[in-house]
């Protein structure tokens, strides 16, 4: 009898130890069907500690919380139980059927995997309004709003978008980060600096709120019709009051994650009226003044003067071309220097743009600079306006006379008819005497050419050895080869840009690729890191002058603006030359 009792006890202990030695590793979800506006909790549980836990990819979901780790140890009737859990909180990205794939962990040298779990995401559901639910409280007290200044602007009329985060006084925000930034397709855009913004008091739907301005942008629509402004989305850690109270009776706060979005905004862009549109209209919209001036009106031949064509005011200053001046052929004119002195704030672009021509007269006389005109669309009166300059007369006091003008002959543009003067020695180059010399028979043996051919192999062998060593050293330089390869690629794209001169879109695509590949080689960064601020910092650290960095960024801006701005082949040639010069300067200055 006693023997049976001992055997039973031993079997019970063996069964208990065997059950405990079995490793369990499984995945559990809070629900298998949820709305797109709900959250899913996934727990990975194990009854024995392990190493190298590897979660699944959670395809179709965004991780909004976790991994949170919890461990519990307990002894019940002398039996030890252990449980370790990794918890994740997921937000669905879209509706559909998804699978939480396998997670893996290594326990006692063996790899264990969970079983895949299927989850169905449906359309958004109406959540019950539970005043004690932290998620419901957060949704009612946190609001992200996009305020658009005008919903029906004209083409190329400035509008502003201001993103404000409204927070109820009873709620707090620990931190936030952008999970989806808006891309302003079909707009010329300029982001306004919001650093140093302070929390302000205001109202939202008639209730008292605090708000913070997160982002400001000025947009100039480049197409007519209905255009979409993409939403800004944030992931926020919110502190909301709970039902628990501390020892002093104050309500304790609970942290929850909340995804908020400003929502899509649609604006209806009106086309500019066709009635009364001037022939020379190039797309200027706003309120402008126009002036043509010269640095001097009296000078001598071969001296130079500057003629400046300038537009000042408020409007889309960077998005149209200035009118060109027409000068007599006796005045030599160089390509203009384009200068932009434009600042952008919430009211749009303001400042001036100008083209400055260098003019050099060749002959004595008086030369008129004819008046030119500039037309724009005035938003206040919703009509076209034309501004004209006054005629300017250039008086060249000293210099040679233009013979064609003096004799009354007609002069073609850029040249004058002149009488051909014959020279008496015009046939002096023809030889009339010859020197005949006898040709003696020469032999190749022992000639300088013979000795050169004989000794050449002995000279070539050491040179070949040196070249081979240098080639081996160069081949071993992986980093240097990468830079040289990228430089060749940049030159290739520059050559492609040169071939595409006159084709705006192809030219600026090739030019932008060349600049990006050059930077990737020079600064050792990837395309995703090519932000203006990052380029500024890295080039400054390498000792490149600020003016060269400014020129480089200006070329990149030209590539971006080219999609929306009328561009001439002269401007393309200037941008190409400036790009080549700037790359050369960076190579010389960078350490």
TrEMBL record:
It comes from Postechiella marina. Keywords: Membrane, Signal, Transmembrane, Transmembrane helix. InterPro entries: BatD. Residues 1-21 form the signal peptide. The keyword Mitochondrion does not apply. This is BatD family protein. PANTHER family: BATD, PROTEIN BATD-RELATED. The keyword Transmembrane applies. The chain crosses the membrane at residues 449-467.
């Amino acid at each position: 009898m006693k023997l049976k009792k001992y055997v039973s006890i031993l079997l019970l202990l063996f069964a208990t130890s065997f059950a405990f030695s079995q490793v369990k590793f499984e995945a559990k979800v809070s629900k298998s069907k949820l709305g797109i506006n709900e959250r899913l909790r996934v727990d990975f549980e194990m009854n024995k500690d392990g190493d190298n836990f590897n979660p699944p990819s959670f395809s179709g979901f965004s991780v909004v919380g976790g991994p949170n780790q919890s461990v519990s140890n307990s002894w019940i009737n002398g039996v030890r139980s252990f449980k370790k859990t990794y918890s994740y909180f997921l937000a669905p990205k879209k509706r559909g059927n998804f699978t939480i794939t396998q997670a893996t962990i290594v326990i006692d040298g063996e790899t264990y995997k969970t079983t895949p779990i299927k989850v169905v995401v449906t359309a958004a559901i109406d959540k019950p309004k539970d005043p004690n639910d932290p998620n419901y409280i957060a949704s009612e007290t946190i609001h992200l709003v996009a305020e658009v200044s005008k919903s029906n602007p004209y083409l190329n009329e400035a509008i502003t978008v201001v993103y404000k985060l409204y927070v109820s006084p009873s709620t707090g925000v620990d931190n936030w980060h952008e999970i989806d930034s808006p891309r302003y397709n079909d707009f010329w855009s300029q982001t306004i600096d919001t650093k140093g913004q302070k929390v302000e008091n205001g109202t939202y739907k008639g209730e008292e709120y605090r708000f913070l301005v997160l982002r400001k942008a000025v947009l100039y629509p480049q197409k007519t019709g209905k255009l979409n402004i993409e939403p800004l989305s944030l992931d926020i850690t919110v502190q909301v009051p709970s039902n628990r109270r501390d020892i002093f009776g104050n309500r304790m706060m609970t942290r929850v994650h909340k995804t908020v979005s400003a929502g899509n905004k649609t604006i209806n862009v009106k086309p500019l009226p066709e009635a009364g549109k001037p022939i020379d209209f190039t797309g200027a919209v706003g309120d402008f003044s126009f002036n043509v001036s010269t640095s001097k009106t009296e000078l001598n031949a071969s001296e130079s003067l500057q003629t400046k064509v300038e537009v000042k005011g408020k409007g889309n200053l960077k998005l149209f071309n200035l009118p060109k001046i027409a000068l007599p052929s006796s005045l030599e004119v160089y390509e203009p220097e384009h200068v932009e002195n434009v600042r952008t704030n919430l009211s749009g672009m303001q400042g001036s743009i100008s083209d400055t021509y260098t003019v050099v007269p060749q002959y004595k006389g008086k030369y008129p600079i004819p008046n030119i005109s500039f037309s724009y669309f005035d938003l206040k009166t919703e009509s076209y306006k034309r501004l004209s300059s006054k005629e300017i007369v250039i008086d060249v006091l000293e210099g040679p006379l233009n013979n064609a003008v003096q004799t009354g002959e007609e002069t073609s543009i850029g040249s004058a008819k002149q009488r051909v003067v014959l020279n008496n020695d015009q046939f002096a180059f023809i030889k009339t005497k010859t020197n005949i010399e006898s040709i003696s028979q020469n032999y190749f043996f022992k000639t300088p050419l013979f000795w050169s051919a004989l000794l050449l192999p002995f000279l070539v062998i050491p040179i070949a050895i040196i070249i081979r060593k240098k080639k081996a050293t160069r081949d071993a330089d992986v980093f240097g080869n990468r830079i040289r390869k990228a430089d060749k690629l940049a030159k290739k794209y520059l050559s492609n840009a040169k071939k595409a001169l006159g084709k705006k879109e192809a030219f600026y695509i090739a030019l932008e690729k060349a600049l990006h590949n050059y930077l990737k080689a020079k600064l050792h960064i990837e395309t995703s890191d090519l932000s203006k601020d990052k380029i500024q910092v890295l080039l400054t650290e390498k000792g490149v002058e600020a003016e060269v960095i400014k020129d480089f960024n200006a070329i990149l801006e030209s590539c971006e603006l080219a999609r929306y701005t009328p561009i001439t082949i002269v401007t393309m040639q200037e941008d190409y030359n400036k790009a080549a010069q700037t790359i050369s300067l960076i190579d010389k200055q960078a350490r």
